[in-house]
Amino acid sequence: MKSGRFWPFLILSLIGLNFAVVGYTVYAATKHGGAGVEPSYDLKGLEWDRERAQHAANAKLGWTFSVALSEARDAMSLELRDVEGKPVTEGSLRVVAFRSARAGERATLSLVEGDPGTYGAALDCRAKGLWVFRLEARAQGAVFTGERIVEVK
User: Fold this and answer.
1) Which ranges of the chain have pLDDT less than 70?
2) Helix %, strand %, coil % for the chain, to 5?
3) 40: region left, alpha or beta (phi > 0 left; psi from -120 to 50 alpha)
4) CA distance 3 to 108
5) Is 117 left (phi over 0), alpha (psi -120 to 50) or beta?
6) Own/partner pairs, 6-14, CB within 8 angstroms, 24+ separation
7) How many CB atoms lie within 10 A of CB 88?
8) Helices marked H in the chain — which ranges?
9) Phi and psi dihedrals of 134, rounded to 5?
10) How far apart are CA 149 and CA 110, in angstroms?
11) What is the pLDDT of residue 5?
12) What 8-state DSSP symbol labels residue 101?
């Protein structure tokens, strides 16, 4: 190969290598649905005052909740208690559940009360990893929100 042809060949080879690397990067970033982006993330800053007011209302209520998964990992239950530890009954509960690794794949659940203060819904959560459960509860004339992270092994 003459020395005059070597340099254009080297430059074209490097450009080709760059295309291959970029192509693989795009494929790897999108093969499982891409990154999980928080819905309406840009609006969260605008609603900061409202979110802080809700945190204050949550603290004033003093309610607590816990999340449990069924043995078969096909359902979840949530126990909601007031400040005195008594069950919060007859509530309207909505939960957004998702696995952290697939934050773009969210399930919005309306929970149904079984035992007093215990609510449940069907949810396929057999995939291992950290699961996030975001609660919005409306009961006794109040609104309570919260978030729990549960590890599925």
Assistant:
1) 1-3, 32-36
2) 30, 35, 30
3) left
4) 65
5) left
6) none
7) 23
8) 3-30, 41-44, 48-61
9) -110, 120
10) 18
11) 82
12) G
